[in-house]
Write a structure and sequence with these properties.
globular, 9 helices, mainly alpha, 0% strand
């Protein structure tokens, strides 16, 4: 589903579930970090700038779904949410964060994923999600959104299980690569 309006066309109304993401991107409502992060010592290692917004939004997605800590499915939701919010910005208005890399969101959109369906599947609890092979922090460690999404979909993560429940097996080439080529090995 392509949410980006054509030139001269006004964007459709933003899904109410995406309003917190839009507000955070526009600076209207900053993400409040979890209590343990607020108590963390100053000067501790912080995520790379390219993954900082993903981490903050994944935390927000997890909290809105009643989870204290995010899993890779919340990272997937975060990337989809930002992609759809950016797609709803009128072309005449400057983008909220020009340094936000949306390559991961574009890849997910090409696969046929959208925020509303992914959020509904998680809310309904119909998708069996085993434990992630690594912590979310290990995935987010300096990863840009495009390579991060490819990594999440290449491994047997909760994000991959969610994506497969919505669009089927991820063996096909979402970006023109030959069948069977892992997403991480495809041209960026």
């Amino acid at each position: 589903m392509d949410t980006v309006p054509e030139p001269g066309e006004e964007p459709t109304a933003l899904d109410p579930l995406l309003v917190p993401t839009r507000d955070a991107l526009l600076g209207g409502r900053p993400h409040r970090p979890p209590r343990w992060k607020r108590l963390w010592k100053a000067g501790a290692a912080a995520p790379a700038p390219s993954s900082e917004w993903i981490r903050r939004e994944a935390d927000g997605q997890a909290q809105r779904l009643g989870r204290r800590t995010p899993g890779t499915e919340h990272v997937l939701l975060a990337v989809l949410a930002v992609h759809e919010v950016l797609g709803h910005q009128p072309r005449s208005q400057p983008q909220p964060l020009p340094d936000v890399d949306d390559s991961g969101g574009e890849l997910l959109a090409r696969l046929g994923l959208d925020y509303a369906r992914a959020h509904a599947a998680l809310t309904a609890g119909t998708v069996v999600l085993p434990a992630d092979p690594r912590s979310v922090e290990a995935y987010l460690d300096g990863a840009a959104p495009g390579p991060l999404v490819r990594l999440l979909l290449d491994e047997d993560t909760r994000a991959r299980r969610l994506a497969e429940s919505l669009v089927g097996a991820l063996d096909g080439p979402p970006d023109g690569a030959p069948n069977g080529t892992p997403l991480a090995d495809r041209s960026r």
